[in-house]
Amino acid sequence: MTIDIKQQSDSTIRLVVQDEMTIYNVLEHKNTLFSSLKADQELQLDLSEVSEIDSAGMQLLIMLKKQATIINTQLSIVDHSQAVIEVLELFNLVPFFGDPVIISSDWNAS
Q: N or C: which end of the chain has fewer CB within 10 A?
């Protein structure tokens, strides 16, 4: 489990989350993600490499989005894996995050 931090510009940071976002490692992700939130800065979450996400991972994303709003930080999910999209749709959270969701034509039908 890793999170790569990439400085896009002076005001934008892109975090690439890899592997899983599950109850087994969500605390590790929480520390890195919350420490990356800074006022008046844009945070982009790239979830294209997330192989599995459960309700604990989704709760972390919800908490992160709410905290970003509180401290006036733009938080967006810029890329979604198939696993992330499936859970977002299951919990009807696509409107909550408000980010464009692109579904690849080469994904397996579930």
A: C
Pairwise CA distance, residues 25 & 5, whole Å: 18
**Given pLDDT bands bounded at 50, 70 and 90, which one contains residue 107?**
low
CA angle 39, 15, 17 (to 5 degrees): 135
Indicate if the pLDDT at residue 85 is higher than 70: yes
- What's the CA gap between 45 and 48, in Å, rounded? 9
Instruction: Look at residue 45 in the predicted model and tell me its pLDDT.
Output: 94
Token pair, residue 39, equals: 């006022």
Q: Work out whether the CA dihedral 22, 81, 98, 10 comes out positive or negative.
A: positive
Distance CA 38, CA 67 (A): 10
Whether 63 contacts 33, CB under 8 Å: no
Task: Compute the distance between CA of residue 57 and CA of residue 84 in angstroms, rounded to an integer.
Answer: 10
Number of other CB atoms surrounding residue 70 within 10 Å: 10
